[in-house]
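From the thread on structure requests for the teaching lab: each student submitted one protein with a one-line request. Submission from student K.M.:

"Model Beta-glucosidase from Eisenbergiella massiliensis, tokens only."
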Amino acid sequence: MEKYMNAALAPEERAKDLLDKMDLNEKIRQLGCTMAIPMIPGQYQDLKGGIGVSIIMGGSDPAHDLEKIQKYVMENSPHNIPALFHGEALSGPVSLLGGSLFPISISLGATFEPELVEEMSEFTRKQMYANGIRHGLSPVADLARDLRWGRVNETYGNDPTLSAMMMVSFVKGLQGNNLTEGVAATGKHFIGYSQTEGGLNCHKTMVCERELREQYAKPFEAAIREADLKSVMNSYSSIDGLPVCVNKKILTELLRGDLGFKGVVISDYASTLQLLDPYKVTDDLTEAGVRCLNAGLDIECPSRMAYGDGLEEAVRDGRLNVETIDRAVLRVLKLKFELGLFENPYPIFEDLDAAMDNTEANRKSYIAAKKSITLMKNNGILPIADKKKKVLVTGPVGNCLRLLFSHYTAVANAEMMAGLQKEGDTQQGYNVTGLLENMGDNIDSVNVLMSLVDNSGAVSADKYAMDETIRKLYPEAKTLFEGLRGYLDNVSFLEGCDYKGNDECQINEAVKAASEADIVVLAVGGKNGQGETSTTGEGVDSASLELPGVQEKLMRSVYKVNPNIVIIHTDGRPLVSEWAYEHAAAIVEGWLPNTYGGNALADVICGKYNPAGRTPVDVPRSVGHLPVYHCQPNGSSGAKNRNVIKQGYIDSDAAVLAPFGYGLSYTTFEYNDFRVVYEQETGIIQVEISVTNTGENEGDEVVQLYGSDLVASMIRPIHELIGFKRIHLRKGEKKKISFIFNIDFFSFLDCNMNWILEKGDFRLIIGSNSDDEKFEKIVHLAETKKINPGLRCLYATAKVSCE
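Reply posted by the TA:
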């Protein structure tokens, strides 16, 4: 038996032994990727000689398709090296039709409950593992501080502590306790991808080195140090004049040197091509590959372009050292050995039926959807307890399933595949119609999918086009209107207007109906996806944060005849409308709840569930107020620094519509028994608070701990989220929450870019959102200390006890 086939040896030892036996061509192929398309003749052509990673596109039987392709790869690899198959996993196993589906990341961020994220990714792990997909291209660690950016929905919000805790939970759930039965997680997009010039996808990153390290790197760092993150994906953007994929300072010095990453760096799709266009830093594809490899990019996706056979020539002519290739290949092989791929390269067919049973996952998904819903305003109109009330539901979200679903779901994937038809019958070498037809065989909805493309080749903007497919995939899914009909006797629906476009012809009809209703539920929002029919999503960025189309006109027109309006908003970012916050009787943020959105929203509206979601981003007054985030540095936060003009701007108040961590409830809570214990020798701080439900309903409260460095040699944040805990309290129940952390949480980079914990006073604040200061305490550090950043505290842990 070859040494590298001895499972008793360490993965790195096995990888080194195998590497020594490989020729240059076989090594280079381990750094490439191929899209495997089962039903297209000749698609196996690029798999001869082996391949590093792959993704299966289309196909009606993913497990058997993967088995067949994997056998071909191994039989055609000189050393029978299995491919590592990947797929998206942001809200469930996206590539698996019929797989579990949870709310998208921004919704999970709004729950302030990392445990839910870990449960979601555990279900995802079981399903991907059983199907032989061992590499997940998730989660997203980006911080959403510019709401114009279309991918806000993929993030956990704008706060590094919240994102860090969610990232750790996701990675632990997906990778599992034993990686040989797990799925390698991928943190993305490293780094600063979300904070770009103009809020536009893939543009120049507008973050200084200090902020990049202290805040944007923190979620990645937490996942690396606390969950052993196995894979990282580069950002499409550029930093300091270099695209990230060729930026050694970012991919090697920061990621591997400072953050301690030991895994594999995989390219975002076609990153290498961007070096030629639009970045124009080279005009030679092989040169692009050489530069990426030298910077620390190990694997190129989605196909072998810059990492193709040209790399062999680059080695022969001296442009590329073979040691650089060996370094990357060793990382890839080590991961494959860690995953146990050589012993277990195929799907686990005996576990497949049990893994794909979504009964428990669906129950958890429903709970997560309810926990994400955030009550932003309420004058007492909610909940609607009287089932005899005459209620009108109007607005484009009111009776549409698709608008409750996010991008990076099987639903949006099917829609995206239809959208590819717009640019012709073939796209990147495969037949789109064939993919759709094959996908349709699996869900019996060929006509629905194909109807998304009209005779001219344009993609249909009909928001209902995917609803039939959704109902086939998720029979339990309900629209908001359908959910309300389960609780109310006298509820009707009129659309009023579409989610985009300028057609106002239905508004008058909605206004007439509203004048005769007791309460109007205005269901507004956008469509999260990809392509021109979407209003948010990947590559769908906005110059405005206003409601798309004529939805604001619908709101104002209805309000004139009936001020009892309850606004339900769903989208990848929060509702930004000063008018709505000033006039609506109630506002509910539904985010993007996916399958159980209609059910969960109806539960909240009718009082069957007490909402406790919290804003994972600060809500600005307009696009002109950006950026706003609660942990902005001292001196640059507008509303909190009114030294010149009291209201912040000469023509507008700079205060946010809603702060970070904000959300209302149908009950009330009282905080007391505040206590801080600081052990100066160890640096350990324990903050205790008791919370009592003083209202008439059971409910959840999210207790939040913030801190400030009051005076420092470098400008510090106004305050930082240290930790949080969501607790459930019955009527009259009291619980004690204890936060434990080290004072080196407050460490920072000094003027020489060294980590220090500087002497002085630190203010600790307990509240229910970032603007709420129920209790505070000052602790003092007597002397400045140098800090090992790899050992510093990243967030507080919390314990709950009953009283």
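TA comment: Residues 669-802 form a domain with the Immunoglobulin-like fold (CATH 2.60.40.10). The two ends are 62 Å apart (CA to CA).
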